[in-house]
Amino acid sequence: xxxxxxxxxxxxxxxxxxxxxxxxxxxxxxxxxxxxxxxxxxxxxxxxxxxxxxxxxxxxxxxxxxxxxxxxxxxxxxxxxxxxxxxxxxxxxxxxxxxxxxxxxxxxxxxxxxxxxxxxxxxxxxxxxxxxxxxxxxxxxxxxxxxxxxxxxxxxxxxxxxxxxxxxxxxxxxxxxxxxxxxxxxxxxxxxxxxxxxxxxxxxxxxxxxxxxxxxxxxxxxxxxxxxxxxxxxxxxxxxxxxxxxxxxxxxxxxxx
Length: 257
Known about the structure:
With 257 residues, this protein is α/β, with parallel strands linked by helices. It has one domain: Rossmann fold (3-Layer(aba) Sandwich). The protein has helices at residues 19-30, 42-63, 80-93, 117-145, 156-159, 165-185, 210-219, 228-240; strands at 10-14, 34-39, 69-74, 99-102, 147-152, 190-197, 248-251. Strands 3-2-1-4-5-6-7 form a seven-stranded parallel sheet, sandwiched between helices. Helix 1 runs parallel beside helix 2 and helix 1 (19-30) crosses helix 8 (228-240). The radius of gyration is 18 Å and the shape is globular. GO terms for molecular function: oxidoreductase activity, acting on the CH-OH group of donors, NAD or NADP as acceptor; quinone binding. This is Ketoreductase domain-containing protein. It comes from Sphaeroforma arctica JP610.
């Protein structure tokens, strides 16, 4: 079954409490979806759940949309049993997933020569293995009805960056993963795409020194950093365009040109 409208679709957002994940979760709530929030910290997830339910009530009152459901599933995306249990609970409580957004990510920066094994493994496990684990977990119900998987990568997965060897390698790996999985499941009506943000104003990028920010803006064709709304617009497009799969969409203001 092809996905077009979003109302009452069951959406799983992995990494929901991050800057981009939070904005994506808000998008689906506004569209009247049933949203499952995945993350490692229950307290933060519950706080986001409360915010999203308030947003849902407001949208319902103003636009007469069907009220969204917001469900919390605490898990580590790199831990397969944890993710499987979360998906089982999601199915039991709000239904089988129609859309999965892999927005969980970490960026442990440092020159490779000085990087610890733990830092390298954490970058790879969270940014690359995690999306594989969560995608595998939602595929069984999606195989029966179709669906949409959206991976959130990074512009550095395309052009690399000093001090981000492991992070860049993990995000580059999402390209091959996205294209390969799209070929494996396309015949069952499941689309898989990758969105590569440029530098977006989020807590993850707030630590970047201003002189580096100025240089990034100078090298960005549109002359500014991106916002989470820029990513949200791309996510909505990929969620609803039913003839796009296996693609890498750069939302970077022209940084990689």
